[in-house]
């Protein structure tokens, strides 16, 4: 009887392993993609730290799940009712009770430690970041101000404001530390860039509401364009309240900010983001308009019902 049960257990283990291998292989994912468990590729050190925490938390959860599933299947397979005779009753099992107390406590303590370490790293800020950006959210768009860069005519900060017809570009340097200071002019919004693996709510009067409205990234590891979104339901056009982060090489960013501070001779006003990028020569990264998302027509009168509707 014992031999048969052992054979069945071995066969069940082989079948389970084969099904698991086929399931993983059929996805066509690389090891790196599997270990991200659906998260986007990180572009900042803070994002990679959060990805690692996520990966190993999921691995730990899966390990516990496999053990629990295995015990359930083992009980179902080998401890089915075989007769009317009751099995031997055990009132107390001190070693088992200690295991069930100690193991979960250790797991929670380890997860808490790594969570606290990662959180402290993500929230850490240096005394003097390379670039500071004031992010102003409003229904239903964004404004990005650069307080360290003033226009030559008005001495006001360089600013980019989105509109219904143009997605705002948050242009930043690759490889430099960036501090974001967030504030809303109306309701609660949320600043979210998927490749940052991070979002933070944007409150009106954040200091008055006792909110931490600043965060910092050590650097963006590569140049590129990354979509940004509002991640807090904020009204009618919340779903289309997008922006784009454009990470340029440091020299290109310096040139961009130099142009933004100057007056465009053709218009008589300071260069806009699109005009400055058009003036530069840095390939696809100098495309004057967003490439990761498109504006949404908010004028309801331009959309007509399909032919025959209501007839």
TrEMBL record:
InterPro entries to which the protein is assigned, alphabetical:
CcO_II, CcO_II-like_C, Copper_CuA, Cupredoxin, Cyt_c_oxidase_su2, Cyt_c_oxidase_su2_TM_sf
The reply on keyword Translocase is: yes
Reactions performed catalytically = 4 Fe(II)-[cytochrome c] + O2 + 8 H(+)(in) = 4 Fe(III)-[cytochrome c] + 2 H2O + 4 H(+)(out)
Membrane topology listed for this record: Multi-pass membrane protein
Keywords annotated in UniProt: Copper, Electron transport, Membrane, Metal-binding, Respiratory chain, Translocase, Transmembrane, Transmembrane helix, Transport
Q: Give the stretches traversing the membrane.
A: 55-78, 90-114
Cite the Cytochrome oxidase subunit II copper A binding domain residue spans from the record: 128-259
Q: Just give the chief location class.
A: membrane
Coiled-coil regions, chain positions? none
Under Pfam families, the record lists: COX2 (PF00116)
EC numbers on record: 7.1.1.9
Domain of life where this protein originates: Bacteria
Localization terms from the record: Membrane
Cited PROSITE patterns: COX2, COX2_CUA, PROKAR_LIPOPROTEIN
Q: Does the keyword Membrane apply?
A: yes
Spell out the family assignment given in the record's similarity comment.
Answer: Belongs to the cytochrome c oxidase subunit 2 family.
> Which NCBIfam families does the record match to this protein?
CoxB (TIGR02866)
**Record function comment:** Subunits I and II form the functional core of the enzyme complex. Electrons originating in cytochrome c are transferred via heme a and Cu(A) to the binuclear center formed by heme a3 and Cu(B).
What's the name of the protein? cytochrome-c oxidase
Organism, by scientific name, is Saccharothrix yanglingensis
By which gene is this protein encoded? coxB
